[in-house]
Amino acid sequence: MPASSSAGDRRTSAPSASRPTARQPAEESGLRLYDGDGDVLMSGFGGAAAGGAAAASRPGAAAFLDRAEHVTLLPDAPTLVDKAGRIRILWGQQMLPDVLAGKYRSVVCGVNSDDNSHGIIAQLVDLTHTSQWTAKTVTSYAKMFSEAISIHAADDREPYILKYDLDSILILALLRPKGRDYFTMDDLARGFQTVNKMLQGRRERIPVCSVSFLGARSNRLIESEKSRREPSFESVLRTMYAAGFRGDVYPAPGMWNLGHIGVFPAFPFPEGLDRMRAGGF
């Protein structure tokens, strides 16, 4: 989906006088994004106020682009060395085609012992040519494992990580605790701690990507047993990061409708966000 790279398009505060707006450098240097009239045609995101004269003269096109799925991508903080590593956020990208194209060797997602026909794991096993798994056998294996641990390891802390080897792709699936139709943030933290251990020193399992666990139909994520609401994307990223995960994360497709909110391409987010939350600039 198209994404606006202008950091100033959606900000409520005016940019600093010492720093030019995102549009000024491109206009002064003659930079163009598209061939032909592409720049004019794609300048309507955010409506006439954001698109300037070009959008104002084309109110119908501007309104259409403003309603279209898009994200407002803000630049990451400049740095030369990233000592702690980071999680890349693949805004506007589709996970399934990237995985099937061989861009990753491992995938992290959820699995349950009831029905996985609507999850991404079913699509992966069905569409991977080297896979000997099906959505039905994925669920059968999860059910067998879940029943076994309920007998022999009932006191262990869930979730467990099930490995599905598709030859070209390794799926590391967080097994949803038995008797529940959701994961909690504590489940996510423990699960990713185990995932991190499975990835450490295993270069053949890198690069790795993960779903965001948000907006899921089969394996939904909630904050806790007391608070049944879905956590924020930032909370999910913070939990993954604290567990040691440094792969790529694909946002939920529903987040592409939040074009009025600026997003960053990686986590941790710039420190300026916390300063703004504290009332600073």
What is the first-to-last residue Cα distance?
Answer: 31 Å
Q: What best-fitting shape do the alpha-carbon axes yield?
A: globular
CATH architecture of the largest domain: 3-Layer(aba) Sandwich
The stretches of 5 or more residues where confidence is low (pLDDT under 50) are: 1-20, 46-56
Major β-sheet strand ordering: 5-6-4-8-10-3-12
Q: Name the beta content range.
A: 5-15%
Helix content: 25-40%
Q: Kindly state the number of beta strands.
A: 12
The helix/strand series, from N terminus to C terminus, equals: EHHHHEEHEHHEEEHEEHEEEH
Q: Measured on Cα atoms, how large is the radius of gyration?
A: 22 Å
Counting H and I runs of at least 4 residues, what is the number of helices?
10
Task: List its traits.
281 residues; alpha/beta; Leucine Aminopeptidase, subunit E, domain 1; 2 domains; seven-stranded mixed beta sheet; three-stranded parallel beta sheet; 33% helix; globular; disordered N terminus
